[in-house]
Automatic annotation (TrEMBL):
SMART domains the record matches: CHAD
Record protein name field: CHAD domain-containing protein
Lineage: Bacteria, Bacillati, Actinomycetota, Actinomycetes, Micrococcales
Residue intervals of the CHAD domain: 1-283
Domain of life the protein comes from: Bacteria
PANTHER family: CHAD DOMAIN-CONTAINING PROTEIN, SLR1444 PROTEIN
Length: 291
């Protein structure tokens, strides 16, 4: 089984390997590879954060900041591609008589420009000395903390529980948030906390097994469905911005308004669909493995 530090290190090493394996395709502009690199980066950051007491904080805390920045530039590239694809599909389903003005061209130019700019930043990051230093520090062995306990079966579930406690706090805030922007922001925080709890459970699954994997699955479902809700909110913001630009150029904004309404409904539908997964993830029965 190994010590807590060894279990965390094994997880970190696996994610670094996934990240490095995706680099050639990321540099080639493959969006699936960008997604894989982003996920590996997020998993690394979550592991170093949740299990921070197990490791040497002087070493790992700076790494978390670097991973946050890398995740941001990867996210910008991935999000521009996904959003552009979603908006084009939404437009394709519209009655052609309701598509007024060069809407498709505006969407394509705007999201392609954002994607190219983000790709330039990704390429620069991956070619930098910072990236090489980040990887070299993460493997082969991160130093453990000065008082890090050895009992992984006790230590890892305890720290995972703290990640789940954090999720509970975001759920409470979301439940009392006013509809609209406040609730959208609160649900975004729930999604991020669910992702953190999921990855924390993945690490602990090395010593806990199926119970931790079941908890991770529940958190993943929340992450997915609230991701759809957040994406719809983000697309509404993009459509408002494009409509403003079209208006300044003397073009009709009719179609942007229709698309905005459809995205608003998609966000509301995702929020309604999230009720059961949120209730299940908040349950205590699946958390018995957490000490």
């Amino acid at each position: 089984m190994g010590s807590a530090g060894e279990v965390v290190q094994a997880y970190v090493t696996a994610q670094v390997e996934r990240l490095l394996a995706s680099v050639p395709e990321v540099r080639a502009g493959d969006d699936d590879a960008v997604h894989d690199a982003r996920v590996a980066t997020r998993r690394l950051r979550a592991a170093l954060s949740v299990y921070r007491p197990v490791l040497d904080r002087d070493v790992t805390d700076p790494l978390r900041g670097e991973l946050a920045e890398l995740g941001h530039v990867l996210g910008a590239a991935r999000d521009a591609h996904v959003e552009g694809h979603a908006l084009r599909r939404r437009l394709e389903r519209e009655d052609p008589s309701l598509v007024v003005g060069p809407v498709e061209r505006r969407i394509e130019e705007d999201r392609s420009a954002a994607r190219l700019l983000a790709q330039d930043r990704v390429d620069a990051w991956l070619a930098s000395a910072r990236f090489g230093e980040l990887v070299a520090t993460l493997v082969p062995d991160l130093p453990t903390g000065p008082r890090a306990p050895d009992d992984a079966a006790t230590v890892l579930p305890r720290h995972a529980r703290r990640a789940w406690d954090r999720l509970d706090r975001t759920l409470e805030v979301a439940a009392s948030a006013a509809p609209g922007e406040d609730r959208d922001e609160a649900l975004h925080e729930v999604r991020k906390a669910a992702r953190r709890a999921r990855y924390a459970s993945e690490v602990a699954a090395a010593v806990v097994g199926a119970p931790a994997r079941r908890s991770a699955k529940r958190a993943h479902r929340v992450q997915e469905i609230l991701g759809a809700q957040h994406d719809a909110v983000t697309r509404q913001e993009t459509l408002r911005r494009l409509a403003h630009q079209a208006d300044l150029d003397g073009e009709s904004t009719f179609t942007y308004g229709r698309l905005h309404a459809l995205e608003q409904r998609a966000g509301e539908a995702a929020q309604e669909a999230a009720e059961t997964p949120l209730r299940r993830v908040a349950g205590r029965g699946h958390r018995r493995w957490m000490r």
